[in-house]
Design goal:
The chain is mainly β. The protein is 6% helix and 26% strand. The chain has helices spanning 3-22, 338-343, and strands at 26-29, 32-36, 41-45, 60-63, 67-68, 71-76, 87-91, 98-99, 112-114, 121-122, 135-137, 144-145, 167-168, 181-184, 190-191, 204-207, 213-214, 227-230, 237-238, 246-248, 253-256, 269-270, 283-286, 292-293, 306-309, 316-317, 331-332, 362-365, 377-379, 382-385, 395-399, 405-407, 412-415, 423-427. The strands form eight sheets. Strands 1, 2, 3, 5, 6, 8, 10, 12, 13, 15 and 17 form an eleven-stranded mixed sheet that branches. The chain has a six-stranded mixed sheet with strand order 19-20-21-22-24-26, with no helix packed on it. Strand 1 and strand 2 (32-36) form a beta hairpin. The relative contact order is 0.05.
């Protein structure tokens, strides 16, 4: 073999070694496994070719460095720690910008996590079934909390959602039964479906002014809720008159209530499942403005002892709006509407129609006599005694001569023609 041939052989050997190093999938340093991202950075990953090839490769307290082998650690890969049941705590450095899907799923003994301030995304099911996780410090750069991210973290008692988060995914905190309060910051625009479903110890919810979408079942089975507040500057939802409920502003539909909800007289419909499984609800007063009640709206409200419906026209009800057990409790309705209720769908199932305890004893219209120009209007009002009578705000207005003057259900009189007419306000409680 001549000298020229030898040089070619050596060069070929060197090139072969370089190619092998560049295509290697990952490496391990100080018990942590990494893989190359292809951009001069690395991700933390699992040992082996799949997350379940080895078990419990990570145990105890793990502190992830920001750099390893002069390469920045920028992400926690999908399923990196999944199923590591002996992992106790994890500290994620500021170099990390994303936590992958299923990253810590079923790390059943994980108790605390500190998420660095550079993380922007927490992946789907990232901390799902971390049963003993009691505290999470979410960095102030997180924009997305993925679907089921903290689902079934039973021991999680509090979480601070930073003002950088824009989206909270479906079932993100579902069945976090130890969670007691949640504040949704003004940065959040979307709350997914079933986000807080089954958070039975949750007592208070505060929703910021930028939320434009709340998914179905977001607060279902939150039987411990006592306080619901929507920021007064929110343009889509409100909790008007401190009613302790979430109301869709444009439609006046009550979407979610709790045991302390007082339904405002401006609400026109009660949504599906609005009070479902609200076991702490002991009584409910449905105002005269309500025309429809959704499916399962008051189903399984096992603490209900009475229902008052002030609506003169029985609201239409979806299937199973009330539970069968509810049909035997007292139902109080306007006396002039009782016959209609006994024939209406769902309402006809009630068997215990009752009289109100606090009836009206006197009524006076604020204007004894008035001259009204044709086509003009006059708003009348009436004062009742006592002021707190059950049906104090439900009066029947009629005109003795509708060809001269008409009056609507709210006491607004309209002049029609020349002549005399008597406007009469009548109580609806049988007094």
């Amino acid at each position: 073999m001549n000298k020229k041939t030898i040089m070619r052989s050596v060069l070929a050997a060197v090139l072969s070694l370089v190619a092998t190093a560049a295509t290697a999938q990952g490496f391990e340093v100080d018990g942590i496994y990494y893989k190359y991202n292809g951009d001069g950075t690395v991700s933390v990953t699992f040992k082996g070719s799949s997350y379940d090839e080895y078990t419990d490769e990570y145990t105890g307290d793990v502190v992830i460095p920001s750099k390893v082998a002069n390469l920045s650690v920028t992400s926690i890969g999908d399923s990196a720690f999944r199923g590591c049941s002996e992992l106790k705590s994890v500290t994620i450095p500021n170099s990390v910008t994303s936590i992958g899907d299923d990253a810590f799923w079923a790390c059943s003994d994980l108790k605390s996590v500190t998420i660095g301030n550079s993380v922007e995304t927490i992946g789907n099911s990232a901390f799902r079934e971390c049963y003993h996780l009691t505290s999470v410090s979410i960095g102030n750069s997180v924009e997305t909390i993925g679907n089921s991210a903290f689902r079934e973290c039973y021991s999680l008692t509090s979480v601070t959602i930073p003002n950088s988060v824009e989206t909270i995914g479906n079932s993100a905190f579902q069945y976090c039964i130890g969670l007691t309060s949640v504040t949704i910051p003004n940065s959040v625009t979307s709350i997914g479906e079933r986000t807080f479903l089954g958070c039975s110890d949750l007592t208070s919810v505060t929703i910021g002014n930028s939320v434009t979408s709340i998914g179905g079942g977001a607060f279902l089975y939150c039987s411990g809720l006592t306080s619901i507040i929507v920021d007064s500057e929110n343009q889509i939802y409100d909790s008007r008159e401190n009613c302790n409920a979430i109301i869709e502003t444009a439609s006046n539909k009550l979407l979610y209530g709790c045991k302390n909800t007082i339904i405002p007289n401006s609400v026109t419909s009660i949504g599906d499942y609005a009070f479902y499984y609200c076991s702490g609800l002991t009584s409910v007063t449905i105002p005269n403005s309500v025309t429809s009640i959704g499916e399962w709206a008051f189903r399984d409200c096992s603490g209900l002892t009475s229902v008052i419906s002030k609506a003169v026209t029985p609201p239409t009800c979806g299937s199973d709006a009330f539970s069968t057990e509810t049909y035997s409790i007292p139902l109080i309705v306007p006396s002039i509407a009782k016959a209609a209720y006994t024939k209406a769908s769902i309402w006809s199932n009630f068997s215990n129609y009752a009289e109100p305890d606090n009836k009206i004893t006197a009524i006076a219209i604020n204007n004894n006599e008035a001259n009204l120009v044709i086509n003009n209007t006059l708003q009348l009002s009436a004062t009742v005694t006592p002021e707190n009578a059950t049906f104090a705000d439900v009066l029947q207005w009629t005109s003795s001569n509708p060809e001269v003057a008409t009056v609507d259900d709210n006491g607004l009189v309209t002049g029609i023609a020349k002549g005399d007419a008597e406007i009469i306000a009548t109580t609806c409680d049988g007094s």
